[in-house]
Amino acid sequence: MANSVSLSWRVPIGSVVISYDVEWSSGTWCPGGIVEATFTVSGDTTSHVLSDLTPGTWYNVSVTARNLAGSSVSEIVSFKLDESAPSAAPASVGVSSTSFFSIALHWEPVPCMYQNGGITGYTVKYWTQGNEDSYITSTVDERTGVTISNLVPSTSYYFQLAAINSGGTGIFSDPISAETTLSSGETGADGLLATTMPIAPTAPPSSVVVRVESSTSITVQWGPVECRHQNGEIIGYWVRYGEEGSSEVQMVSGDSSGGMTTITGLTRETLYTVQVAAVTSAGTGVYSQLQTIETPDSVYLTLNGNVIQNDGYVDLNDIGSTDETALLCHTNRPPPPGTTNSGGDWFAPDGTLLDGTDVPGFTGNNGAMVVRLMRATGTPAEGIYKCSIEDDTSVINTIYVGLYGSET
Question: How many other C-beta atoms lie within 10 A of the C-beta of residue 381?
Fold first, then answer.
């Protein structure tokens, strides 16, 4: 920093100088600053260094030679030191949240004696909490306030500020520690933390999937709202569903990772629409696109009882290919040598053929046929069911099972 200058002069001709008075004055505008000074050096000295001067400031200097006969004053010499970057941070920095997407900063200028030249603007450095290495900078003019826009709603930001002159960028204010951050609207001296105002999510949950659970229920599952559109902490979800021309809503607890719910009490053979929206403290966000699904007329049966008949039995089994639970029909008699069990049907107690999806499978020497039961509306819900297994030579083994089915 250029804050000193070297002075030199010649001894007056034909004079024996006793001492020299060096007088200087500055054109500084700083209140209370030193504007002039005089000091004396011995007569055999012809140079001196002026130090602790202020960069970017005009100075006037004159030298007076003194002897026994009197004194003689030189011409006044004027010079200006080069500007250097401000040596202090702006004072009384404050922040306040002004909208969902912006925060306002205000400050007082760098103290005059530390400006080191004419302030031409300010650099604002800001970042989200925990991301100091990914800061953003913005330059503003010589005003003492600015609004930073295009921020993420309901997000905490740190700010630092430095003044600029022709000598460069000055000292930044120090970031404040997490334990002593200031709330939105408060003011402080150095690097500040402010929080934007909250806003509802600006995008819907992702990957919304709706599937039938039974003739009167459906399951809805969804993924997270994209992070940059969450705009705050997700505290739950609204699931909106209904028949054409009407709708109901159901609040579901969840977090930013997504969620799932089962809606019950629906009407069979009815077309429903479903949408999901995330919720923050600021309100309900954007709903997902309409998903349409129709509840079936038939219902599934679950196994409540089991009576072994005719060398066979029934149990519950998980069908990996459909990821659903099904009824597994076993026969204790293996098929004839060289044959396999190739098909199967289920019959209700009244002889009604039950609609199902045949999934063949085998356990040890016992041929097994998985039949996912779909019971038509109006057929008995419980009683003696018949499982008919056919091998590839059309030999049919019939198993009678006391199956107490319950609707799901």
Answer: 13
